[in-house]
Design goal:
The chain has three helices and three strands. The chain is an alpha+beta fold. The protein has a three-stranded antiparallel β-sheet. The longest helix is centred in the last third of the chain and has 15 residues, at about 65-75. It is globular.
Length: about 90
Amino acid sequence: MAQRSSASSFRSDVGRHRCAHSLLVSGNGDVIQPTDGILGIGSGGNYAVAAARALVRHSELAAAEIVRNSLIISGELDIYSGGNIIVEELDCL
């Protein structure tokens, strides 16, 4: 489940919610915010999201390890997902 809002309405909240949201901007300019903070894109995106949700619920892994492991699982299920995974963490402002 995802909530959709316009990019302009999101900009007004940016200052108050730094690092509090996972967002995806669609090709149409829609800002998509997943209800649980987990999102995925691409051919293996749904597999990665499912794996990440399971790992979040049933493990104590750090965020970067959840991402890495969910991408590994997605790569095992989706023939178009590659096995070359680089996880970069960004500091919040």
